[in-house]
Design a protein that fits this description.
Helix content: 40-55%
Largest sheet: 8 strands, mixed
Mean pLDDT: 84
Strand order of the largest sheet: 2-3-1-5-4-9-10-11
Number of strands: 11
Distance between the termini: 8 Å
Strand content: 15-25%
Length: 356
């Protein structure tokens, strides 16, 4: 893809403008805003400048290659640069392509048992353990907000906040229905059962203004019930908030009613923000023929087949024969393939913007 020079110049001009304004700014809020924009623009500006240097070097080498005395010396360097230039252009194109504004955000992870009774709850537990182990390998922190355990183990529902750099960008394509095919421990005749669990990954964005009116919510306190282990409180301090306009209901069951109220309000804001995101995503996807995920939580996205030791992602048609490793948290091969597919779609959008 040949990127228009005008677009590249526009990026550098804005970057230099922001740097100049940062040096002159005295208002705290403006400094914060400019610093954030500077941090976002710097990788793009560095890549654009790197591409400009490579193109200038190529022009010099082509002049040298035309000189019989210099041709042999220049030829090898020129070929190496020609081989490297497409990758540099692709890197810049990806940085310029439309991207998710919440890419670097932390996230709220929700895993719920679906069809399949006790086996579904056990599978939900397997999925949560998988994500927890993956988070550990990346240095992310996982904090359980609420959990309801299954009668035979696992979870009927577990909600956690995963804090770290780029959590949402790595995990956002995990939202959807995950299906498992295996012989349950309680199955006496060795028959394979199919169960399911749903996963939702929501961006946790600190500086988003979501207006919640007092008249639009009801706050109830209640005694947490069921087997929730250390996450379930034995006093009447659990908090449930119902948001009437959206129908969203959130709960928190820590040991402090004050903490529960704050956590529940935070989770309500996360869900209301996610509703806005899904509306925007749907508007964008209507104009795109194919995409990695529509954000539809009812979409069956992946099957974990125990008898054959394989995991298949149905959106991109990828099958990996490494089920044990994946359940231990080695999910980068799957995530990388999903991200690559999304990058290809974003590059296609950029190419369409530039007219091919």
């Amino acid at each position: 893809m040949r990127l228009p020079q005008a677009r590249l110049d526009q990026v550098l001009d804005r970057f230099h403008e922001v740097e100049a304004r940062m040096g002159a700014a005295s208002d705290g809020a403006e400094i914060v805003r400019l610093s954030k924009e500077h941090a976002e623009l710097k990788p793009v500006a560095d890549a654009v400048q790197g591409l400009a240097r490579a193109r200038a070097e190529m022009a010099d080498l082509e002049v040298m290659a035309a000189d019989p005395e210099m041709a042999e010396m220049a030829a090898e360097e020129l070929q190496a640069l020609k081989d490297r230039l497409p990758e540099l252009e692709r890197e810049v194109a990806l940085l310029l392509a439309p991207r998710d504004a919440d890419e670097n955000a932390s996230a709220v992870l929700e895993v719920r048992a679906g069809t399949g009774g006790d086996e579904a709850a056990l599978f939900a537990g397997d999925l949560f353990r998988m994500y927890s182990r993956y988070a550990s390998t990346r240095g992310w922190r996982v904090e359980v907000d609420s959990a309801t355990e299954g009668e035979a183990g696992g979870y009927k529902e577990i909600i956690a906040t995963v804090t770290g750099e780029g959590v949402f960008g790595r995990l956002k394509f995990e939202s959807g229905v995950h299906r498992v095919q295996r012989v349950p421990a309680t199955e006496t005749q060795g028959r394979i059962h199919t169960s399911a669990a749903t996963v939702a990954v929501l961006p946790e964005v600190e500086d988003v203004e979501i207006e919640i009116l007092d008249k639009d919510i009801r706050i109830d306190t209640f005694r947490a019930s069921g087997s929730g282990g250390q996450h379930v409180n034995k006093t009447d301090s659990a908090v449930r908030i119902t948001h009437f306009p959206s129908g969203i209901m959130v709960t928190s069951s820590e040991k402090s009613q004050h903490v529960n109220r704050d956590k529940a309000m935070k989770n309500l804001r996360v869900r209301l923000y996610d509703m806005q995101r899904q509306a925007k995503d749907q508007a964008r996807s209507d104009a795109r023929k194919s995409q990695v995920g529509s954000g539809d939580r009812s979409e069956r996205i992946r099957t974990y087949n125990f008898p054959q030791g394989r995991v298949t992602d149905h959106r991109i048609g990828l099958t990996l024969h490494s089920l044990p490793q994946i359940l231990e948290g080695d999910i980068d091969p799957m995530l990388n393939a999903l991200i690559a597919e999304d990058q290809a779609a974003r590059l296609a959008d950029l190419e369409a913007e530039f007219g091919g």
